[in-house]
Hints:
The structure holds two protein chains of two kinds. By secondary structure, chain A is an all-beta fold.
Amino acid sequence: NAGVTQTPKFRVLKTGQSMTLLCAQDMNHEYMYWYRQDPGMGLRLIHYSVGEGTTAKGEVPDGYNVSRLKKQNFLLGLESAAPSQTSVYFCASSPSGVSYNEQFFGPGTRLTVL
Amino acid sequence: GENVEQHPSTLSVQEGDSAVIKCTYSDSASNYFPWYKQELGKRPQLIIDIRSNVGEKKDQRIAVTLNKTAKHFSLHITETQPEDSAVYFCAEEDSNYQLIWGAGTKLIIKP
Lengths: 114, 111
């Protein structure tokens, strides 16, 4: 049982390049989330999904797109990377959106945009 | 919009002493308040949570208290140990069941 995994662990991009971050979970969770973590700012929600085929915007969605074609996978895309997107990205999942559910996090992806 | 303020941003305590981290929130309808611990270079993990129908919850050396009237909740760690060194995040659950996070507190345990 791997829990939540993220690919890749590290990536360096040049401004304007595109990339996709992959999140996978094997816990059959309904909800999945993408966060970014910047120093002194805690975790900020980018997008989330309440089930296969659904996506919704979070607090900071601009510059990112997501897809949830399979229940176990949640992809985060950057179409044209900017230096302001340099951050650590965490994926998380939870059993459902019903209250009191623990969010399980992946190990994170450190992205640097030059 | 809803927000969570967390204080202090850095807390340094002597090993064996107690540590207290406080968070205030704005949404009076919030009913769920978790605390996550993030060790250096690791992922955040839930350590304790509290629901609005109770005022205090304990788990060994960790406790959380909630004051709904004043809209604040606190994390208490007693008899601190080196392995308690980490960044601690509080959060509140909004009306869409999403978590609104505090900015984090870096806890340093001095030997």
